[in-house]
Amino acid sequence: xxxxxxxxxxxxxxxxxxxxxxxxxxxxxxxxxxxxxxxxxxxxxxxxxxxxxxxxxxxxxxxxxxxxxxxxxxxxxxxxxxxxxxxxxxxxxxxxxxxxxxxxxxxxxxxxxxxxxxxxxxxxxxxxxxxxxxxxxxxxxxxxxxxxxxxxxxxxxxxxxxxxxxxxxxxxxxxxxxxxxxxxxxxxxxxxxxxxxxxxxxxxxxxxxxxxxxxxxxxxxxxxxxxxxxxxxxxxxxxxxxxxxxxxxxxxxxxxxxxxxxxxxxxxx
Length: 269
Prior knowledge:
Elements: H1 5-17, H2 38-52, E1 57-60, H3 75-103, E2 106-111, H4 126-144, E3 149-154, H5 162-168, H6 173-179, H7 187-199, E4 204-205, H8 208-217, H9 227-268
Parallel strand pairs: 1-2, 2-3, 3-4
Helix pairs in contact: 2-3, 3-4, 6-9, 8-9
């Protein structure tokens, strides 16, 4: 489900090429803007269910970011990011909830971001929208657990996708330098991790060592599905907090250095 018919057709053809020989799963494309109108999203989901039956797994991956300093951001920049990143997830999830409850099972994936675990320079709008997903996911998981529905909240790192490359344009220098700390991951690895974690019923999903550290540090009152996850969060809390202070010192140092460079350029110009 997406807004662009042509891109949907291209995605459909790519998925069909990847099917195993002899398999005949239907790939159905539905044109809809998940952030625009909750009723239209529900109609679109009903259309898909009419072809394939009730939704058993929903992947909420519609999202985008506008990076810039708080002063440079327009009020609509905050609203549009909240509409897509947060309300788009709410609308799509509400549309599948009745059928999942009737089935007595289901998997719902929220695609957040590492910027939804730590507020970063240039992401006052984006981080706020992604942080909102954490509260939604925790509350929703408590409501739907009796129906054997599992919510997975994914915090992917920077991933080499067309969207990531497009968002590099116009990013503040501070944001770029801070983001380079954790590197860029390949989409196939990130996607595989998300799907596997969802199938295993894991609430938090992360990629890489930085992702593991952030997940342990920001777990708060999040549910856990394995004893190993619980022990990891308990035993690493102190050491990861210490490590995080070094990261924060570095991040604030980057911001301070960039400001000094700009001030110096202004004096010489």
